Amino acid sequence: METRTVMQREQEEQSSQMSHSMQLSSQIRKKTFTSSDEEPSYSDFYPIIPADVMSVKEIIDMDNFPRHRTWEILKETMFVGEKYHREKWTRFGNEAEKFEQDVIGTQHILHTYIDKMALRKQAEKKASAHMQYLERLSQKAPDFPIPLRAHTVWEGMTVKLSCTVQGCPPPKVTWYKDGELLMMSAQPWNYSLQQKFGLNSLEIRRCSPDDAGEYKVVAESPLGEAMTFGTLVVNSYQGAVAGSERSQAAALQLQQEAQFGTYFPQTWVKEGQILTLQCTFSSALLPFQQDVSWFRDGIQLHQSSNVDMQTSDNKVTITLQAANKEHEGVYTARLRTWDGFQEHSAFVYVTDDSAALPGGPASPLAVQVADVNKDYVFLTWQPPSADGASHVEGYYVERFDIGQCEWERCNVHIQKMCNYPVFGLKEGALYQFRVRAVNQAGVGRPSKATEPVLTADPLEHTRTMVVKVDRGRTITITKDELEGEVRVPFPPTDVHACEVSDTYVVLSWAEPEPRGREPLTFYVERRLAGWNGWELASMDTVVNSRRFPVFDLDKGKQYWFRVRSINRYGVSDPSEPSEPISLGKPQAAPAPPHSVMVISDTDTSVLLKWQEPEDKDDILGYYLYYSEAGKLDWVTVNNKPVTKTRFTVHGLKTRGEYVFRVKSVSRAGNSNYSEESCSILVKSALHVPSAPSAIALLLCTGSEMVLGWRAPSCNGGDPARGYFLDQREKGTKTWREVNVKPAKQRQFKVCNLTSGEFYQFRVFAANVVGVGKPSEASDAFLCEKWTMPEPGCPYDLEVREARNGSLVLLWANPLYEGRGPVTGYLLEVSQGDQSDDWTAFNDKPISGTNYKVSGLQAGQTYRFRVLAVNEAGVGRASLPTEPVTAETRPGTKNIEIGVDDDGFIFLGYEAAEVNDASEFLWSKNYTEPIDGGRVRAETKNNRSVLTFTDPSEEDLGLYTVEMSDNPHLSSSYDFTADDLERLKELSWQVRNPLIALKSGWQVEVSEKGGVRLWLQTESLSNAAELRLIFNDREISSTPHRQVNFDKAKGLVEILFERLSQEDEGSYTAQLRDGRAKNQLTLVFVDQKFRQTLALADANRRDHQRKFGPYFQEYLWWSVNEDCELIIRCKVTNTNKDTSLKWFKEGVEVTQVVYDQSSGVSTLTIPQVTEKEAGSYRAVVSDGRGEDVSVLELLHEEYDKLLQQLSKQCALSAGPLSIQGTAEGFKLYCSFKYYICFLKTSWQFKEKRIDQETRTKPGSNLQKVWMEILNPSENDKGKYTLEMFDGKESHKRCLDLGEQAFADALMEHQMLKQLAIIEKNRAKVTKGLPDVVAIMEGKSLCLTCYIDGDPAPEIFWLRNDRDLPDTPQFTITKQPKCSTITINYVNMEDSGKYSIFVRNQYGSETVAVTVSVYRQGEKPPPNAVEMG
Q: Is residue 1177 a contact partner of residue 1137, using CB atoms and an 8 Å limit?
C-alpha cells in the first residue's frame, strides 16, 4: 500500500513536470529558413511531451500530430522496441527535450552565419563586377607608340635598341633576330634585356658583324598582337662595311616584300558546298609574312575541322568544307608588311540549298544554345530569308543525343517565336540541336546543327574554393564540408520567371543554402489567382535543374509558383511564392524599314541604304531583295541578316535596271516588305581617271622636248578632258608645273629647257570629276638635239580586236624621221608579261600604220613594239604595249552586215558595255573618216548602225568601229563586191516583199457537219487587206457562208454551216499588207468536193443522233482465252428510262448482260456453231430518240471469227500425251474448245501420217486424237500434231522413246486382257425393273436376258436366299434367257427377288423389288404395275 502511494505521487509529480514542460515549449518557436536574405519567420507551436506520459513511438506514429524535423531524427534513432522499461524512455525523453532546445539554438546561429555569408558574397560579387567593368573599360590591344628604329654602329661599340609597348592586359613581349627567337641565355655577356614601365630595351655590348641583322619585337595579348622592326648595321674599321651583306639583304628585303597579286572576288556558294578563297602574291612571302590572317566580319578565323588554311610561297587559300548561311559575310585576308598591314576584303554570299519540298521554306540559321543546365537548355535562332510559297507559320525544334544517333522532335506544336526552352534532357549527355521552318507547303530543310552541348550543373564550380597557404600549397574546401550534417534540404529561394512568352513561362530559382550533400531534385507547385489551394505544376516530371518551363497556362490569368527541394532524406518546406506571373503578350513582327535609297557603285554593284523603323529594339538585322524593273521576279540578296543600314549589293548585270526592297528581322519573324526603291541603272559611278603611263620622248631640239604617253587604263566613267605635266631636273625632288591649261592631246611640247640637262616628267589625267593621280616618273631624258640618221620611235601603239589567235596593232608615225622619210615598220613580239626577249615578227617592213597579227597562241599573253625604218637603218623601238591576251572576251560581238526592214544595206555593232558617255567611233581602214554623204550613223542604247544610202563600189573597203571610252571593244568588217551583189538582191526582196505563208488552203469538217476552208500567213498589221474570189466573182459573208479575217494571226476562214452543190468551185484569197502581198487558190471540185460533202452529211447525222442515247462503241466481237465469243457494245447519254435490246435475225436476244452504270452490254457465247452466224442488231432508245448498231456476222466476217476462234483454240492446246487402249495406243491433245475449222494433221518422224488400217484419227469438243492399232517397235519416234487456223500453224510434239513405248505397251496389254474378260464374263444384258407391283391373287412373270462364254450358271434368289422348290414358283432356264413365274401371289410374296449368273470370267447379280397390294389399294407410285 505504501509502495503504491509513493508510485502515485511520483506519477503526479511527473505529470506536473510534463505540464510545466508543455507550457515552456509553447513559448519556443521553430524556425524555418526560406531564404538567407529574408528575416526569420517561425512556424506553429510544437509541444514537447515527457516520455513518461506517452512513449516516443506513440508520438511518432500519430498521423495528425504536427511534427518538427526533430521527430524525424528521433524516428530514425529511437526505434528500438517496446520491450524496454518505461524508466529508460523517460530519461530519453528528457534528453530529447534538451536536444531540441540545442537544435533550435544552433539553427539560429547557423541562420545568422548564412546571412553574413550571403551579404559578403553579394559585396564580393559587386566588387568583382565593378573591377571587371573597369578592366573592360581599360582593355586595349597591344600597340607600339614608339617603334624600333634602325641603327648603324662601328664594330666594338655598344648599342641599345628600344621601343615602348602599351596594352591592357599587359602584353607578352618577345624579341626575334632575322626571324628566329632571340635566346638571351646563349650570350648573357653580350645581350642585356630590360622591361620596365612599358619600355623594352635590348643592349648589345661590343657589337660584332654577327650582331648585324633585322630585329623584331612582337607584343601579344588575348586582344591581338603587334610588331615592330629595326635593322642594325655594323661597320668594320678596315674600311669595308662589315655585315653589309646583311644590310644589303635587309634593304633588298624591304624592296622585295610580297604584295597582293590577284585577289578573290565577291563569291557565291550554295549552302552545303565547298568554299575556297585564294590570294596570290607578287613574290615569295618573307619569313615575317608567313602568318597570313583570315577574318570574317572582323573576327579572326582559325584552323578547325571545317576551316582549312594553307599558305605557300606565293599563294594563300582558305577552304570551308561545308558552307552554311552562318558563314556568309565579309572575308578579309591580312598580310604583314614593313609598314604595317595590307588587307583585301570581299563579300561571300551563301545561297539557300534547294527546298526540301516544292514551295517549302528555307532553313533557319544562327541556332544558339544558352542557359545550359542539367536537363534544360534555351535555344534561339534567326528566321530564314525565304519563306517559300507562303509565310513561315512556325518552327520545329529537333535534338540529337549523340549516344542515341537519332534526331528527335522536341515540340509537338509549332513554335512561332525564334526561341524555345528544351526540357527533359539527360544529365551528362552530349546534345546537338537544329530547327526547321514550317509553312503551308510543309516542313523545310533543317538548319545547321549546333556544336555538341554537355548538359551539366552550371553552379558546380562555385561549390569549391581553393585557399592558398604558405610555400605555394593550396587547400581545396567544398561547400558541402562547410554546411555540416544537413540531411533534409532547405527550401529554394528567389523563385521568379526568367523567360516569358505568349505560350510559355520559364521559372528560375536559387538552390537552398545550405543544400546538403545529397543530390537535389525539385518539384514545382502553382496556384491560380483567387484560389486557395496549390497544385503540382511539374506533375510526374523530375526536375533536376533550377529551370522549369510551364506551357499549360491560361492567357490573361495570373499564377503564383513555389518550389520544394527533394533528396533521399525527404522534402523541404515550400519556398516563398513568386511574384504574380502570367503569359506575355504575343510579340508582333517588326515594322519594315523605310526610305530605301540606291546609289551607283560599280558596273556590277550598287550601294543600298535605308532607314530603320522607329521601334528598333528587337531587330536583329535586315534581309535584302532585288528584281529587274518591271519583272517582279524577286531574288534574295543575303541569307544572313545585315546589322547595318547600308549594304553593297554585288552580282548585278551591267546596264541592268533594278528595284530593291528590305525586310526587318526579329525573333518574332520577318516584317513585311518595305516599299520598293526607285529603279536604278547599274553602272559605275563617276570618278577621277587613273594615272597615264609609258611616257616617251618623241623629239628633242636642244631646248624643247616633245613627249607622248599612254592614256589612262580607266577613264573613271567620263572621257579624259585633258592632261597636266610636271617636270623636275635629275637629282632634285621638287616637281614644277609645266602647263596650266590642260593638253587636249596625248603629246605635248615642253619648252625653255636647258641643253645638256637631264629631265624627268610625270603626267596627270583630268575628267569632269577632277584630276587623277600622277603617273610614275619617266626615265631621265637628256635635253640634246637629235641628229642621228635613223628615225625616232613610233608612238601611240595600241591594240584592237583581240580575238583567239589574232589582234590588230595601230601606231602613229614617228615625229623625227632622221636622214630620210620612213619607208616601213618592223614588229617585235615578246611572250609573257615582263619578258625582255624580243623576237622579230616580220621580215619585210610594213608600209602602213596598222597591221593584223595572226598565228598567235589562243590564251597566251604577249607584248609588242614597233620600229621605224628609213634608208639609214632601223630606228628606236617604241614603248611596248601593255600585256595583251590573244583571246576573245566573253560577250564580244563582231560587226554584222545585212538589210534592214526598209531595204537599206547596213553595218551594225553591239557593244557589251556602254555608259552614258560612250560613243561609237566608225572609220574606214582604221584612219579614214566616214563620208557622211554616203552613209548615216545611228546609235540606240548599246547598238550602232551604219546605213548606206546608195551603196556602190565606192563604199567597198575595211570598216572599223571602237568605243570611245573602251578601245578594247572594237571590231572590223571587209565590205567586198560579193557582199554588195548579194545584199542588193536581198534589198530588192525586202522592198518588194511576199507575205509568208504558215499554211496553205486546208479543208476541215467539224463534228456537227460544218465545213471550214482556211489558210494562215505570218502575223499581219491592222492595215492588211483581203479579197476573196469564188468562180471569178468577189464574195463576202452571207447567212449561208461566213468569212473571217484575223489579221493578228494571219488567219483567213470560210465557214459553211451546210455545204451544198452550189459551193463547188475555186476559191482565191488575195492578201496585201503594205508593200507585201500574196495570192492563193483552192480548187474545190470533183472527188475532193464530193468526199467533203459526204463526210459533212455523215457527221451532221451522227451529231443529231447524239441528242438522245447513242452508241459510244458499236457492236464488235472478240474471242477470250476460254475460246468464248464475246459480242459487246457501249452506250452513253442514258437515263433511267433508256432501254437497250438485242436482236438476231429479228428475234430478241435475252441472254445479254447490261451494266447501266458503265453503259457496257455483253453477249457471251460459250461454243460457236453455225447457228451463231447471222445479223445482230442492238437498239438503244428512250423519249429523246434512238440509235441502232448492226453487226453482220456472215460470210467473210464469220470466217474471220472462225479463224480467230481457231487460233485461240490452238493456243489453248495442251501438251501431246499418250494413252494405252485395248486396241493399241492413243495419242491425244486436250483443248479448252475445239472446232472443226481448225485443221489438224499428224506427222511421224516429220512425215505426214495418211489414213491407213493401223491408224484411226478422231476428235470431240475437248480432244483431238489418233489411235495406233496393234503397236510394234516400228512405232517408236517423234509424233507431231500440226494445227492450222487459216493463217498460221501451231504444233505440239511427243517423242515416243523406249521407256514411254514400254509403259504404253504394258498399259495396252493390260487393257486388252481386261477387254477380253469383260467380253466373256457372265452378265445380265436386259435386267429387271427396280420395283414391280402386282395385285394379290394374280400371277407374276419376270424375264431377263443373259450373255457369257461359256454359258453362265443361273440362280434365282428371294431376299438373298434360294427359292423354295414349291409349285408356286416356276423357273425356266435357257442359254441366253431365264424366266421366273410366281403363281397366285399373296402378301407374303412381297420382297426382293434377284437373279445371279456366273461363269469362269465373272458373275453379276440383278435385283427387283416385288410389292403385292390388295384389291382396292393403290400400287406404289414408283413401281411398274404388272398383271
A: no
Cell numbers standing for residue 76 = 530514425
Q: Quick check: 344 and 260 in contact, CB under 8 A?
A: yes
Report yes or no: 1095 and 1123 within 8 Å, Cβ to Cβ.
Answer: no
267-270 and 340-351 beta bridge pairing: parallel
Alpha carbon distance 1137, 463 (integer Å): 95
pLDDT in tens, 116-163: 787 788 877 877 777 776 666 667 888 888 888 888 888 878 889 999
Q: Find cell 575541322 and name the residue.
A: 305
- Measured distance CA(453)–CA(375) in Å, rounded: 12
506 vs 569, which has greater pLDDT?
Answer: 506
Cα 339 from Cα 446, distance rounded (Å):
47
Out of 52-61, 245-254, 423-432, the most confident range is 423-432
Alpha-helix runs per DSSP H in 215-367: 244-255
Give me the pLDDT at residue 31, please: 35
d(CA 1407, CA 1392): 7
- The partner residues of 454 in beta bridges, in order of sequence, read 430
Angle between helices 86-138 and 69-77 (to 10 degrees): 130
Please report how the helices 2-25 and 86-138 are oriented relative to each other, as an axis angle in degrees rounded to 10.
20
First to last CA, the chain: 138
Q: What is the rounded distance in angstroms from the CA atom of residue 1369 to the CA atom of residue 1341?
A: 10
What is the bridge-based pairing of β-strands 180-181 and 191-196?
unpaired
Give 972's strand partners. 960
For residue 143 the three cell numbers come to 600597340
CA distance 582 to 1347: 116
Measured in residues, the chain has a length of 1427
Among residues 1250, 1259, 1208, 1204, the alpha carbon closest in space to that of 1229 is found at 1259
pTM of this prediction?
Answer: 0.51
Mean pLDDT of 487-504: 90
Residue 1213 confidence (pLDDT): 87
Q: Cα(417)–Cα(368) distance, rounded to whole angstroms?
A: 14
C-alpha radius of gyration, the chain, whole number: 59
Residues in Cβ contact with 462 at an 8 Å cutoff, skipping those fewer than 6 apart: 479
Residue whose C-alpha cell reads 544554345 in the numeric block: 369
3-state secondary structure of 1218: strand
With vertex at residue 983, the alpha carbon angle to CA 981 and CA 989, rounded to the nearest 5 degrees, is 115
- Secondary structure of residue 773 in the 3-state scheme: coil
Distance CA 525, CA 559 (A): 10
pLDDT digits (tens, 9 = 90+) for 1305-1328: 888 878 878 877 778 888 888 877
Contacts of 380 (CB under 8 A, 6+ apart): 366, 367, 368, 370, 418, 419, 667
SS (H, E, C) 48-77: CCCCCCCCHHHHHHCCCCCCCHHHHHHHHH
pLDDT tens column, 346-386: 999 999 998 888 999 999 999 999 999 999 999 999 999 99
Average pLDDT over residues 410-417: 92
- Banded model confidence at residue 639, pLDDT cuts 50, 70, 90: very high
Residues with Cβ within 8 Å of residue 200, at least 6 apart in sequence: 162, 163, 164, 165, 173, 193, 194, 217
At a CB cut-off of 8 Å and minimum separation 6, what does 59 contact? 49, 65, 71
* Residue 979: burial class (beta carbons within 10 Å; 0-12, 13-18, 19+): middle
Report the percent of the chain where pLDDT is more than 90.
35
Under DSSP, the state recorded for 415 is B
Q: What is the DSSP letter of 422?
A: E
- Find where cell 423354295 sits: 1364
Q: Among 532, 514, 528, which residue's Cα sits nearest to residue 558?
A: 528
Name residue 335's beta-bridge partners.
342
Average pLDDT, the chain: 84
DSSP 101-140: HHHHHHHHHHHHHHHHHHHHHHHHHHHHHHHHHHHHHH-E
